[in-house]
Amino acid sequence: MSTHAKRERLLLADLLEAAGPEAPTLCDGWTCRDLAAHVVVRERRPDAAGGLLLNVLKARLDKAMEEYTAKPYEELIQLIRTGPPRMSVYALKQIDEAANAVEFYVHAEDVRRAQPDWSPRDLDPVFSDALWSRLEKLARLTGRRSPVGLVLRRPNGQTAVAHKGAPVVTVTGEPGELTLFCFGRQAAASVTLDGDKEAVAKLTVAALGI
């Protein structure tokens, strides 16, 4: 596994373990047990994971989630730590980095920021750049349901258009915070929003994300 994805995987496992199975997350209605099961199903049950995007597979996904949430929590944590099966597409380094570095970063923050004693995490510049690079590629996908024009801006001035339209709201923040914002965690992201007041209000509750 590549550096960023592996590190974020292990961090997520540690956070889930420390929080405990019944602790809340930023994923609406999900406990840490639910989130852990989601991560494992996504990697180990490709026949069911498609239900995350395709309604025709939703029943299969629900069944797999029910099966894995019933497993001992410690087993789920260990499955996350050990990574995908050898024959999984996620076992390929390039796919692991492309698909999991952001996924695990977001879910780690889902656990961290849902706890009352959470503290900000300083991301190293290399990882921040990696998140920005990935966000540039995903911006239009994550912003496709934005009700207003959406521009993402780093403090260094780099920008990416997530959604064309008017009026325009510009969201400024570090790449990690912009990533959380674009993946539907607007309320938890440390960003500034500039634009029409009504447009900003609409954007903060929009269903952003993949």
Automatic annotation (TrEMBL):
Pfam family of the protein (one): MDMPI_N
All residue ranges annotated as the Mycothiol-dependent maleylpyruvate isomerase metal-binding domain in the record: 12-104
SUPFAM superfamilies for the chain: DinB/YfiT-like putative metalloenzymes
Protein known as: TIGR03085 family metal-binding protein
Species in which this protein is naturally found: Streptomyces virginiae (Streptomyces cinnamonensis)
Lineage, top ranks: Bacteria, Bacillati, Actinomycetota, Actinomycetes, Kitasatosporales
